[in-house]
Amino acid sequence: MSGFNNIVILTGAGISAESGIDTFRSAGGLWEQHNVEDVATPEGFARDPDLVLGFYDMRREALREREPNAAHNALALLDAEFAGELLIVTQNVDDLHERAGAKRVLHMHGELKSALCTSCEMRSPWDAPMSAKDGQRPPCPVCWARTLRPDVVWFGEMPYQMERIYRALREADLFVSIGTSGAVYPAAGFVRDARDLGAQTLELNLERSEGSHWFHESRQGRAGDLVPAWVEEVLGG
Ligand code: BJW
After folding, report:
1. CB of 179 shorter than 6 A to ligand 1
2. How many C-beta neighbours within 10 Å does residue 215 have?
3. Could you tell which of 92, 185, 208, 222 is best to mutate to test the pocket of ligand 1, judged by most ligand atoms within 8 Å of the CB?
């Protein structure tokens, strides 16, 4: 697979699964362990902020132990060596693409290691617990209000940088989706958007996803096997 000049790659939880990070919808995944309405909606946060802050504190802490895998490393190599336009749009809130060395990365669902202040609306780098200690939550580094929340996109909220993503999709000649179930919009609709606009479309996923039939080609297997092989095709061709 070669001859492309403008590639948009969408990644989901499946690309980080081999690094030991739970996916959402697999058996034993995050949504079997936690009620999605409680931990991934603004209403859940309003009802029980301590529960939600604890959920994200736990995941931020666990991320320290995780390392990028062969799929993240292959995309970082592609980012470094592909001369054309490239954008990695990740739904993941982990930082494994960056830790593998990728630069052209956009986090459409936010980041675990970022805090959003609901008072001043500033986003700040964050690598500590956010839940209350000694009865007080930590202050915002910008306005000092104790009103931080995880800088992640919950159901009902607008994902980040949608204009930039749609611009990239309009210009893409290849759209590749890696390790995502295609269950969550607007990301699940990108394949149709890209295809309608003339791009070739390829899915790399452990199993067929909800949107597999929209892709020109769908390959099944582990990201750690499929992604390095595909990157070799692109760079070698
Ligand atoms: C492997 C593997 C291995 C495993 N190798 N593969 C219709 C149109 C538009 C919107 C809606 C609509 N209907 C409903 C909506 C609203 C809603 C929505 O989509 N709901 C659905 C339940 C239907 N969407 C929203 O509310 C979004 N906002 C929005 O729509 O705003 C309005 C808008 C309109 C139009 C344009 C633009 C905006 C916001 C969605 C926010 C999602 N947030 C979460 C939590 C983020 C923070 C956190 O991490 O806690 O994002 S939910 C969760 O799901 C997380 C993920 O990013 C997201 C997607 O999950 P993902 O990555 O696909 O994981 P899984 O587990 O589902 O799948 C993993 C896959 O990997 C599986 O297929 C495995 O087989 C595979 N796999 N191991 C390769 N080793």
Report:
1. yes
2. 24
3. 185
Whether 34 sits among the annotated catalytic residues: the reply is: no
Ligand 1 close to Cβ of residue 223 (< 6 A): yes
- pTM for the full model? 0.97
Q: Give 136's DSSP letter.
A: B
- What's the pLDDT at 2? 77
Domain CATH for 9: 3.40.50.1220
Query: Cα of 70 to ligand 1 centre, how many Å?
Result: 23
221 and 123 in a common domain: no
Q: Which residues, in sequence order, are CB contacts of 195 under 8 Å at separation 6+?
A: 175, 201, 214, 215, 216
pLDDT of the residue at 133: 84
Identify the pLDDT of residue 237: 64
| Domain around 148 | 22-65+113-152
Per-residue pLDDT tens over the stretch 149-159: 999 999 999 99
Please tell me if the CB atom of residue 181 comes closer than 6 angstroms to any atom of ligand 1. Answer: yes
Q: Are 167 and 194 in contact (CB under 8 A)?
A: no
